[in-house]
Design a protein that fits this description.
about 400 residues, mainly alpha, 7 strands, two-stranded antiparallel sheet, three-stranded antiparallel beta sheet
Length: about 400
């Protein structure tokens, strides 16, 4: 996400002059048989018919490519002039439709906003769709809007006043980042709003093809937002958290594999303190050095680094308990108090964690909780452990990060 956006996906449509597809926005995308619009001769086509059809398809496809190329050129020449966080036309339209987020409502009124509250929504271009719905939207080179299914805009009607210049985008990002610590609403509501509006910022940057150090700084702040959001979403208990978390991680994981990415990183960056830490912690994780992994994270990681590492901590803890279980002496259960210090968890969390991975705990003669070893019921849940078990560290409790 921290680089220039790639050209949009542009599949080559295969239109037939004698047939069309039927589609309803409320139905899931699926293959729908052709519905004849007029009488069709079902006899076997001759060579002349086949050649004519191929020629028609080639011409239609060529015209479509030219239309799209022209639209992309128009976008690349855009220079935004909108002075507000949200274009006036969009704000007025969303006021009429009551399409205002809670942060955009003036005095809580779902029909009224203001230039200091409304923020431009993320808009989807018709060419961003794949599958059958793409063919419905792209007919003979025209970009059509699909009501009640998505928000789309046609590049033919896009104006400079619909796009915000860099200075306005920076102010908009500052405004959104200040909402991150808002406690007036549940965090998932805060996340959903900032998630959508930062995507809109990236869209405006891409449409204007802006590339400079100020843009890099903006992308860095948006990456930080997704990292911290992932950390906070794990503490939420709403039913839709898993989907929000998935979409959030999708934004973070867009890009190349580490092996390809490392090849292009300059040597002075590879030798930096941050990169040295990242490579060290990754090596400990892959080699299964659980004690070094936990100790290094607790003593060296910054708050932001901890937020990134956190999903892997439970996996490392499960490996550590597995080693204790299989390597222990059966007549001598392992004390949970020792495990809690070793894994940097509260003792009752260790007990719960053991149950999550299929192990039973017991009390010794003195009433101390222990983990009987050599148990054969150890499991590793598919998709990892979704329950949140924080790393007990006073260091992290004092940390905070500014976007």
């Amino acid at each position: 996400m921290a680089g220039r956006s790639q050209p949009p996906y542009r599949p080559r449509p295969n239109f037939s002059s004698s047939s069309s597809r039927s589609f309803h926005p409320s139905q899931p995308s699926r293959n729908i048989p052709f519905q004849p619009t007029k009488s069709v001769n079902h006899s076997t086509p001759n060579n002349t018919q086949i050649q004519n059809n191929a020629s028609d398809k080639k011409t239609s496809s060529s015209n479509w490519d030219k239309a799209i190329d022209g639209d992309i050129d128009d976008i690349q020449n855009l220079v935004g002039t909108c002075p507000f966080m949200c274009p006036v036309k969009e704000r007025e339209k969303r006021e009429r439709l009551r399409d205002l987020a809670v942060f955009e409502r003036l005095y809580g009124n779902p029909r009224e906003s203001s230039p200091s509250l409304a923020v431009k929504k993320n808009m989807l271009f018709p060419w961003e769709f794949e599958g059958p719905s793409l063919l419905i939207l792209k007919v003979e080179g025209h970009l059509l809007q699909l009501s009640h299914f998505c928000r789309t805009i046609s590049v033919k009607t896009l104006q400079d006043s619909d796009v915000r210049p860099l200075s306005v985008l920076e102010d908009t990002l500052n405004y959104l980042c200040n909402l991150l610590d808002s406690t007036e609403h549940p965090f998932e509501v805060v996340h959903d709003f900032i998630f959508d509006r930062t995507r809109s910022i990236r869209q405006d940057l891409s449409m204007q093809n802006i590339s400079c150090s100020r843009v890099v700084s903006m992308y860095e702040r948006m990456v930080k937002f997704h990292i911290i959001s992932q950390h906070k979403l794990r503490r939420c208990s709403s039913s839709n958290i898993s989907s929000l978390s998935y979409l959030n991680m999708e934004q973070l994981t867009k890009g190349e594999t580490l092996s390809l990415w490392f090849r292009r990183v300059p040597s002075h960056i590879m030798k930096s303190t941050e990169m040295s830490f990242a490579r060290k912690i990754l090596r400990y994780f892959k080699l299964g050095f659980y004690k070094k992994f936990i100790d290094t994270t607790a003593s060296k990681a910054s708050y932001l680094q901890y937020c990134i590492i956190e999903p892997s901590i439970n996996e490392v803890r499960a490996l550590a308990i597995s080693c204790v279980n299989y390597g222990g002496y059966k007549p001598q259960p392992f004390p949970l108090a020792t495990l809690s210090k070793f894994l940097m968890m509260k003792e009752w969390d260790v007990e719960s964690f053991c149950r999550d991975i299929g192990l039973q705990t017991s009390d010794d003669e003195e009433g101390n909780s222990c983990l009987p070893t050599k148990q054969t019921t150890l499991i590793h849940p598919k998709g990892g452990l979704h329950k949140y078990y924080p790393l007990e560290s006073e260091r992290f409790e004092r940390f905070s990060v500014e976007l």
